[in-house]
Amino acid sequence: MFIYFHQSFIDLGAALTNLFQLADEQQIAEGPDAVFLYGLAPERLARFGDVPTVFYETPDGKLVGAVPAGDRFGYFGYLKKMALTLHNIVMMKRGAMPFHGALARVTLRGGTSANVLLMGDTAAGKSESLEALRVMSHDVIRELRVIADDMGSIRLTSTLAAEEDTAARIRKIRPKAKPVRF
Known about the structure:
Helix content is about 35%, strand content about 30%. By secondary structure, the chain is an alpha/beta fold. The protein folds into two domains: about 1-95, no CATH class; about 95-180, no CATH class. It has a four-stranded mixed sheet with strand order 1-2-4-3. Strands 6-5-7 form a three-stranded antiparallel sheet. The protein is elongated.
């Protein structure tokens, strides 16, 4: 995604680099899946109606988001949430599932590993729960590596897809059978 912001919002635009990695030269050359314009002249958005924010999909599938200039839009939440919404739509179009949560790879001292995803509302304690797990279980956990904290996206791997396929076949044979997750 390419994000352009008006110079009056440079402080907010710079802060966004904490959420998103800057594009490298190859990614720039490939072009974006989405473009977000933050701080456009309001008259440039008038054709889209009275709504202060705009989402649009071009005929070739590119997404465009826009927020007009103005003091009332000088809030980091407008920049962050619009950018994350566009990002999430791009991820869904690529077959991934966006999430709001904390994702970590947990490796036990015995060598067993698993990915743990905690999802929930804002301020529900997702990140704090991972930290508590790390602190309180140091005698059992060898490593707890945070993969995503706040927002991310996941895909089913072929292993998970195979498990889903197996569970579906079992349900056809025994309709009341339910898949079990550990």
